[in-house]
Design a protein that fits this description.
This protein is mostly helical and 657 residues long. It is built from 29 helices and 7 strands. The strands form 2 sheets. The chain has a 5-stranded parallel β-sheet with strand order 5-4-3-6-7. A two-stranded antiparallel ribbon has the order 1-2. Helix 7 (117-132) runs parallel beside helix 9 and helix 8 (139-165) packs antiparallel against helix 9 (170-202). The two termini are 84 Å apart.
Length: 657
């Protein structure tokens, strides 16, 4: 294998052409990637070129193999001991590269010796920053240097870890970990800078589009200039390789945190790196389709047998390897870009799975999040805003509820509607057009009528079953009167015949059980009829009307004797009194919120009593219960008018909200 190199080396031409030799060695390590000899031969060629950074890179690739080449370690020892000291700074494209190589000499030969690690780290950080920002070096050369320097540091972290395992001295172990810590920090802080510069380019979508959809085979001058501008995207090569290394060697970071004296510095570098990576992936999620398949890329050729990345490359798709070896044109810039982004995404997914309390993926916003203190403050502020919005929403709903109550009056019904028109009652409840109150004595009357086989008994049973569910679990739009929901009426204050007690002995006879004389009977009858005419002539009545009138007279006479209504009407009147006061209080609350309530429609009533019983209507007048009494037909017409008007008045301060 070395014959090709000797042939070029002893060529009589002044300018040595190493391309044939390099091509031969590249084919060799692709055929047998676990053998380090081809890499050692390339390292020797780099020595002839005086490219010492690349030389160290290839020697380390040769040594850290499953089948390492022994000459690699010996040649590195010779270089650090003799050649490096004699090499003037002018031999390097940047003088700080020489200082960085002295640092590599330290971690190669003396990783177990204690020193001022803080000072060492700060100096190397400045040297690398100067190298990577040197504008005298072309972009393509700088990106190649990124990859070589990162892989060199990863290689020495791997070698120092082997030394750590065979060392029992605690102080030596501590020194090894400190040297590893410096290498890790140098990688992370420069990776963060690389990703940050890439993020600035990606913010301009034209740059990314030009790179992804540029024709690689075009010879147009403008295309070549565009490719030079988009070389920055080749930064994905070292970034993706380092992400693979972190995922497959995460135990190095864990051990490092336990030993390093530079934990704060490393944590700062690590946080900065992860923040920039997350920003990169979130920027690309909206414009690219990221594929996580493990495929072969051109930069993988020389690293296939590299032990720190061996776990990843062992799962490599062999078909994709043949694509690269055969120069398959289907693996263009765009496909390579997607694969590299997929490798970077593997790192973030690893963090999300391993540390779900610190990292997560928001499926709604389709982006990755780092749950740091800043994020927690934003989430807390967000939750507070949501709570304030919910509270405001609740207040608005309460205001709306007050307003809606204006068009949803209390409605008290008797047993005839429940038994004979139960479907209509169900419709009122489901449509939420009013709030229906069932008096307790109505339940008792229906309960008495449920026994029997007639139709009315069957309807009474059905009504009882319907009302039971609302008695157990009250509904906003239908409720059964409870025992404590009774108003107070002083019946003696409204006794109609109090002014006749002194001059009329018939009241005493009535109290003793005597019958009223015809004069008083006529007077009572006139009170409970709707005819205000005092004449004694009346139109002819049918029999039903005559029976109804007799019932009214009988009730009137009973009223006179007992000075208050019967138990049935007392219970009903007390129910009406209670809910009438409650309805008026609610209207007053709405009026305090909305100043426009004074202009409300005259057809809006706080409480409506639906009954065809004329006696009940008279009692409402007698006891000054200022609610509206309607027949069933009148109430149906009333609801129809309200639906047509659609009169919902919103409070003024609700509109301001």
């Amino acid at each position: 294998m070395s014959i090709v190199r000797y042939k070029t080396m002893y060529n009589s031409s002044e300018e040595k052409k190493w391309e044939d030799s390099l091509s031969t060695y590249r084919k060799a390590y692709t055929i047998f990637p676990d053998n380090g000899k081809p890499h050692a031969q390339i390292a020797m060629i780099e020595t002839y070129r005086c490219n010492y950074l690349s030389m160290i890179y290839w020697y380390l690739l040769s040594f850290i193999k499953f089948y390492p080449n022994p000459i690699a370690k010996d040649n590195l020892e010779t270089f650090y001991k003799h050649i490096l000291e004699k090499s003037p700074p002018s031999m390097f494209i940047n003088p700080n590269i020489r200082e960085f190589l002295f640092f590599l000499k330290i971690i190669h030969k003396e990783p177990n010796i204690s020193r001022d690690f803080k000072h060492l780290y700060l100096h190397q950080s400045d040297y690398l920053s100067d190298i990577f920002n040197d504008k005298n070096i072309s972009k393509i050369v700088r990106i190649k240097m990124y990859k070589e320097i990162y892989m060199i540091l990863i290689a020495y972290i791997y070698l120092m870890n082997d030394t750590f395992k065979v060392t029992e001295s605690a102080s030596v172990r501590q020194n090894i970990r400190n040297h590893q810590a410096i290498c890790i920090m140098l990688i992370l802080e420069n990776l963060a800078a690389n990703v940050a510069s890439l993020n600035k380019i990606i913010k301009n979508y034209d740059n990314l589009t030009n790179f992804l959809f540029n024709n690689d085979n075009s010879d147009d001058n403008n295309t070549n200039e565009s490719n030079n501008d988009n070389i920055i995207f080749q930064l994905l090569i070292p970034i993706s390789l380092c992400c693979l290394w972190i995922v497959n060697n995460n135990e190095i970071l864990i051990i490092y945190r336990n030993y390093s004296k530079f934990y704060e510095e490393n944590e700062k570098c690590y946080k900065s790196f992860k923040k920039e990576i997350v920003c990169l992936l979130n920027s690309l999620n909206s414009i690219t389709e990221i594929d996580n398949t493990v495929e072969y890329l051109p930069e993988d050729c020389e690293l296939l047998g590299f032990l720190p990345l061996r776990n990843y490359y062992s799962s490599m798709d062999l078909k994709s390897v043949n694509q690269v070896l055969n120069n398959d044109k289907s693996l263009d810039n765009r496909n390579q870009f997607y694969i590299r982004i997929g490798r970077i995404q593997t790192f973030i997914k690893y963090l999300v799975q391993k540390y779900p309390d610190k990292y997560k993926y928001d499926e709604n916003e389709e982006k990755y999040l780092i749950c740091d203190e800043e994020y927690k403050k934003k989430e807390k502020s967000k939750h507070l805003k949501l709570m304030a919005q919910e509270r405001l929403k609740k207040q608005v709903e309460e205001l709306k509820e007050y307003v809606v109550k204006q068009t949803q009056p209390y409605v008290i019904i008797d047993e005839t509607i429940i038994i004979n028109d139960l479907p209509l009652l169900r419709k009122w409840v489901s449509s939420e057009s009013c709030r229906i109150i069932i008096p307790s004595n109505v339940i008792s009357i229906i309960d008495v009528q449920k026994s029997g086989n007639s139709k009315i008994n069957s309807r009474a049973r059905e009504a009882i079953r319907f009302l039971e569910q609302y008695y157990i679990k009250p509904n906003k739009f239908l409720k059964v009167q409870k025992n404590n929901e009774k108003g107070i009426i002083k019946y003696e204050d409204y006794y109609l015949f109090k002014d006749q007690e002194n001059g009329n002995n018939n009241m005493e006879e009535s109290n003793n059980g005597a019958h009223l004389n015809p004069e008083n009977t006529d007077e009572v009858k006139n009170i409970f009829t709707q005819d205000n005419d005092n004449s004694t002539t009346h139109p002819p009545w049918n029999r039903n009307r005559e029976i109804e009138l007799n019932n009214e007279i009988t009730e009137s006479m009973s009223y006179c004797r007992n000075q208050k209504p019967s138990r049935k009407f007392r219970s009903l009147l007390e129910c009406i009194q209670y809910f009438n006061e409650q309805a008026k209080n609610e209207i007053a609350q709405i009026a305090s919120i909305d100043n426009n309530m004074d202009n409300k429609n005259e057809n809006t009533y706080p409480l409506i009593v639906i009954s065809n019983n004329n006696i009940l209507s008279k009692y409402l007048e007698i006891y000054h219960l200022d609610c509206k009494s309607m027949t069933l037909q009148e109430f149906i017409k009333y609801l129809a008018i309200k639906r047509q008007e659609k009169k919902i008045i919103y409070p003024s301060n609700l509109l301001n909200v």
